[in-house]
Amino acid sequence: MSDLPAAVHINEEGPREGFQIEKGPIPTARKIELIDALSQTGLDHIQIVSFVNPRAVPGMADADEVVEGITPRPGVAYTALWLNEKGFERALAHKRLSLGGSITLVASEKFLKRNQNRTAAEQLASQHRIVEMYKAAGIPVERGSIMAAFGCNFEGDVPVDRVVALVQQILGVAAEHGVTLKYITLADTMAWATPLSIKQVIGALRERWPDLDFALHLHDTRGLAIANAYAGLEMGITRYDAAVAGLGGCPFAGHAGAAGNVCTEDLVFLCNEMGIETGIDLDALIECAKLAEDIVGHPLPGSVMKGGTLQRFRNPQHV
Amino acid sequence: MSDLPAAVHINEEGPREGFQIEKGPIPTARKIELIDALSQTGLDHIQIVSFVNPRAVPGMADADEVVEGITPRPGVAYTALWLNEKGFERALAHKRLSLGGSITLVASEKFLKRNQNRTAAEQLASQHRIVEMYKAAGIPVERGSIMAAFGCNFEGDVPVDRVVALVQQILGVAAEHGVTLKYITLADTMAWATPLSIKQVIGALRERWPDLDFALHLHDTRGLAIANAYAGLEMGITRYDAAVAGLGGCPFAGHAGAAGNVCTEDLVFLCNEMGIETGIDLDALIECAKLAEDIVGHPLPGSVMKGGTLQRFRNPQHV
After folding, report:
1. How, if at all, do strands A45-51 and A77-82 pair?
2. How far, CA to CA in Å, does B143 sit from each of A243, A256, A279, B93?
3. From residue A269, how far is each of A28, B142, B162 by CA, in Å?
4. Which pLDDT tens digit goes with each residue over A198-239?
5. Is the pLDDT at B250 greater than 60, yes or no?
6. What residues in B contact A270, CB-CB < 8 Å?
């Protein structure tokens, strides 16, 4: 009745998503504590910091110290986010980071104008320059990304055809510069997606590019992230960004619209219960979620860390 | 790609689910305020109280006063819950309540033993007596119900075959007493369901009884309620119990396992965004959710009341 994958890959973004939005200040040592704990759970991709202007994002002012302070675990790729060349150069200085370039377009021209003061044509042109910059630095470009792929607070609904056209443009940039993308991330940046629109967009992309892989970056602002992830699973999507404990927003402090990514441990629970392999130790991840709550000092939205797993009821000696 | 229904019917259980679990005390007038507000949203079934032992459930000690205090709105059915004959008799005294009987079985014998000190055979026998009691009182019996239909904390996973057998037994009781059931509610009492198990159970029941209607009663203890509701929608299920603001549990106060029903306004939002009619005014319902938070005095789990709807971004004059 569905096309559920046998296994999925989860890209943990909780530290970066969470620590950049919390009012803090959060001690650097505690950020490192969470990252090191996450690296013990089986997660093999963890986005730990963003290299951004510390005046705009005070919570990331210690990004360099965080990167230098962690205890890297073999087999775990620690990644970072940057928004411009200056941030990229800061990231490049850290040999322990796994850097990867992305070709990024935005499905809403109004959002692009507002956030980066660019037209869609200017954004496309900039991606050519950025890919050359990555190539010159010896950084692989394996990912495409479409922001606001399902809708935008400034422009409204995004037609499926526009997403198809943007994927075409991304593939065009990649081809022109001789890079091969492993996958393209569809980001529901402002939480407009529904399970139905997930299926419609993925369906249209699959029809056009049957062999192309896609990833989902889902925000839970309106409570649909886990249902949207399930729709992705039904479409056979195997790559998901997620944030432990639902870090990245604080819906209980009046930050309307700022809710975080789909909660990692809730997503792992969903996968476990449907027989989908994640490679992640759910019990260890739940301890990380509780640690994250302790670090930020207020409740976080994750559910399984409060409701508990089911495994303990199946193995009575485990209760 | 799916079998989404054109319209669904939502049975609001927030007042009953919420007020019986909150530590309170909540003033009777405020309970009435919420119920009267809910009755203005387009909801046409609202379960407002349970008639239970006030020593066991102090939050329902004022059930009679609540029923007498509301301002009934024509077209809205106000319902109540009871667990035994004494509670039923209290409900019968209120002419403004819409009483309906249910034939209820439990998919977990251990749960049944623990909660009602009965075997499955005794529970089945009791349902024959209960149907006769309803008939004698002139109360329609239009609903069957299976508790713990997807799993049980005391017994573990529930096989699909057992649910099929229980539906068969319920239909047998109904037939023997000459009553025709409108639908059978599958209750995920202890939050074991996944979208996959929803589809498997509904699929098996549909195969056996293609014309029988089912309803879903979904708890959000592990964060999957909205994904489970979506799976129900994909299977064409048109009846859902829900609780405004996610009333019925307080996951942020350490009540592990006590999370409420699927959140009504989040479910209405999901339906609206996928073109499924609910007959409910979402903006008015969100105001009720905020009122519910104000009444209980702590954050409730609903998301859309915090993140906002999308309609205001589509109609700029509405911002």
Report:
1. parallel
2. 41, 40, 43, 21
3. 30, 36, 24
4. 999 999 999 999 999 999 999 999 999 999 999 999 999 999
5. no
6. 194-195, 224, 227
Using CB atoms, pick whichever of A194, A269, A308 lies closest to residue B274: A194
Least CB-CB distance to A308: which of B256, B308, B313?
Answer: B256
Q: Give the 3-state secondary structure of residue A222.
A: coil
Tell me how close the Cα of B5 comes to any Cα of chain A, in angstroms.
12
Q: Which residue of A has its CA nearest to B229?
A: A227
Q: How far is A111 from chain B (nearest CA, A)?
A: 13
CA of B314 vs chain A CAs: smallest distance (Å): 5
By CB neighbour count within 10 A (0-12 exposed, 13-18 middle, 19+ buried), where does B133 fall? middle
How far is A170 from A177, CA to CA, in rounded Å? 11
pLDDT at A250 over 70: no
The reply to whether residue A199 touches residue B1, judged by beta carbons under 8 angstroms, is: yes
Identify the active-site residue in B152, B250, B271, B288: B250
Instruction: Report the DSSP pairing between strands A141-147 and A101-106.
Output: parallel
Contacts of A8 (CB under 8 A, 6+ apart): A233, A237, A238, A239, A240, A271, A276, A277, A278
Tens digit of each residue's pLDDT (9 = 90 or more) over A144-158: 999 999 999 999 999
Handedness of CA B28, B287, B233, A307 (dihedral sign): negative
- Which domains does chain A carry? 9-318 (3.20.20.70)
The set of catalytic residues of A is 250
Nearest to A24 by CA among A54, A3, A45, A53: A54
Residue identified by tokens 């599958």 is B186
Sign of CA dihedral B62, B68, B69, B73: positive
User: Which of chain A's residues have a Cβ under 8 Å away from the Cβ of B270?
Assistant: 194-195, 224, 227
Q: Is the CB of A306 less than 8 angstroms away from the CB of B263?
A: no
The residue among B111, B222, B272 with the most chain A CBs within 10 A of its CB, best to mutate, is B222
CB contact under 8 A, A224 and B226: yes
**Contact by Cβ (8 Å): A198, A233:** no
Closest Cβ opposite residue A227 in set B1, B226, B307: B226
Predicted pLDDT of residue A249: 63
Q: What average pLDDT does this structure show over B199-223? A: 97
Measured between CA atoms, the residue of chain B closest to residue A269 is B222
What average pLDDT does the segment A251-263 reach? 62
Helix (H, G, I), strand (E, B) or coil at A45: strand
Enumerate the residues of chain A whose CB falls inside 8 A of the CB of residue B309.
222
Q: What pTM, to 2 d.p., does this model score?
A: 0.95
Please state the φ and ψ torsions of residue B214, each to the nearest 5 degrees: -125, 155
What are the start-end ranges of the E strands in chain A? 9-12, 45-51, 77-82, 101-106, 141-147, 151-152, 156-157, 183-188, 214-218, 239-242
Q: How does pLDDT run across A150-208, given as a tens digit for each residue?
A: 999 999 999 999 999 999 999 999 999 999 999 999 999 999 999 999 999 999 999 99
